[in-house]
Amino acid sequence: MTLSFTLPQIQGNADGSWGPSTSTLPAQFKDIPYAPFSKSDKVTRIADWHDLPADATAGRQRQGQARRQGREAYGAAEGTVFGFVHDEDEKSFSLVDSGARANTRVKAPIRAGGRAIRGAALTRGTRGRGAGRGGFGGRGRGGARGGYGDWNKPQRTRDSSVTISPDWQVLEEVDFTRLAKLNLSVSDPEDIASYGTVQGYDRAFDRINTRNEKPLEILDRVRYNTSTSDDPVIAQLAEKKAARIFATDSILSVLMTAPRSVNSWDIIFERKGDELFLDKRESGPFDYITVNENASDPPVDSDDQSNINSAGSLSLEATYINQNFSSQVIQASSKAVTPKPNPFYSADVETEPLASTLYKYRKFDLSIEEDETFDLIVRTEADAYLGKKDTLITVKALNEFDPRAQGGSGKPLDWRKNLDTQKGAIVANEMKNNSAKLARWAVQSILVGAEYMKMGYITRANSKDAQRHTIVGVQSFKPTDFARQMNVSLTNGWGIVRTIADLLLKQPEGKYVLVKDPNSPQIKLYKVPDDAFDAGLEEETIGESQIDEE
């Protein structure tokens, strides 16, 4: 028996190129581009001589059968850009949005001037003249993607919290991924001194629920948020060389939780000799509280002053709520504890009573080597004491606005209907939408050594009215447990502080600004002139005087 081998018919391309031959291609496929390759394709054979059909038409039929039997076709993973079939239903048509997206620029937040923040009534539409532009805009770069209806939603571009001058020199750009890898273990702090007056917490507020709600009162109490360099106590400690770094808990907490930030913020660093001071700008981001900063579809700002659900209006409303709630929960009959008088209060200037606030100046050792001295003194704040006078607590408030407005984050649970039965779900939603804010509150409570955080749930009496509010619940948290639940790492926070401090202490004396990029997860360090912000204030004062004269 003689065996012979007959070479099967080879389907060659007469054009001399890869892909199907134009001469043998059926007429209905001639105008469709050939897409032969996709990175996700699995090419298992260079050439397949097995059962090649006699003609191209039969070959396509055979390939179609193989695909139906489970074999992956070459080029099958290619996109659906050619998925339109003319003689079938238009559902097979795939629309690709290639047009340029419009940018919606977020304006500056609503500002409220004055060093002493009071629990005055909310004033909408008032924009102050703080140096720089607002940082309470909506989330940039579009945030997380929404549903199928969001394909043509314009991306948001947020403004920087401070105007970047062309003469500012960029020294360093650090991505959040690098910050998240830093760690430093810090031992318990040393108490330096305590000032201010603190009163007891009224435990009756712990019994408030949705069936036993209580209106939020407007209380005129003076509460200070003085910057580091303007603090007379810190000035005395700096003169004595008590530490190398000086800060306040509000500034330090933002730096320690920087990777959670979405909105822009800025910290002024001033290097004086061998000392470093962390400061804030007057009426800057540190004087106001954000709302749903981390939500997938956060609130945006608006030029419409009547829009009570814009980012700026909600920020001012949240600040107003927190100031009044922390004053309302104080038990009037409790004994006031005053270690030393409030260093910022002047009876000649202020007429309203002081809010219950204890300022504790604490020293943290950030040294790495055993023979190294690297101390940080921070001014921390507690709002009240609970039972015993040495059991300090902080008081904060979460606020619910119109759930149907933008920034309401989908379909949140109605607090009045669900807070008593589904408090865990509501807390989880707040932790997601306000991750940066709640992380800062937890860090501030830990820095002062508070035993508990009292968290109030406050909603509008009417969703269309931002002036009247109702307390529908109060919950207690241990700061360390709360931080652990949110995956807030204190060692990572201290690592960020030490790294930034080392970077600044290597620079010559002068003024520097650390800015959270408004549209990217990174921070930028700038070298700025010593009068960078003073000049802006002078121009502002001159402009105001000219307006007054006219």
TrEMBL record:
Keywords: Cytoplasm, Initiation factor, Protein biosynthesis, RNA-binding. GO terms for cellular component: eukaryotic 43S preinitiation complex; eukaryotic 48S preinitiation complex; eukaryotic translation initiation factor 3 complex. It is found in: Cytoplasm. Residues 128-149 have a biased composition (Gly residues). InterPro entries: eIF3d (IPR007783). Residues 125-161 are annotated as: Disordered. GO terms for biological process: cap-dependent translational initiation; formation of cytoplasmic translation initiation complex. Residues 285-299 are annotated as: RNA gate. The keyword RNA-binding applies. Its main location: cytoplasm. Component of the eukaryotic translation initiation factor 3 (eIF-3) complex. mRNA cap-binding component of the eukaryotic translation initiation factor 3 (eIF-3) complex, which is involved in protein synthesis of a specialized repertoire of mRNAs and, together with other initiation factors, stimulates binding of mRNA and methionyl-tRNAi to the 40S ribosome. The eIF-3 complex specifically targets and initiates translation of a subset of mRNAs involved in cell proliferation. In the eIF-3 complex, eif3d specifically recognizes and binds the 7-methylguanosine cap of a subset of mRNAs. The RNA gate region regulates mRNA cap recognition to prevent promiscuous mRNA-binding before assembly of eif3d into the full eukaryotic translation initiation factor 3 (eIF-3) complex. Belongs to the eIF-3 subunit D family. This is Eukaryotic translation initiation factor 3 subunit D. It comes from Kwoniella bestiolae CBS 10118.
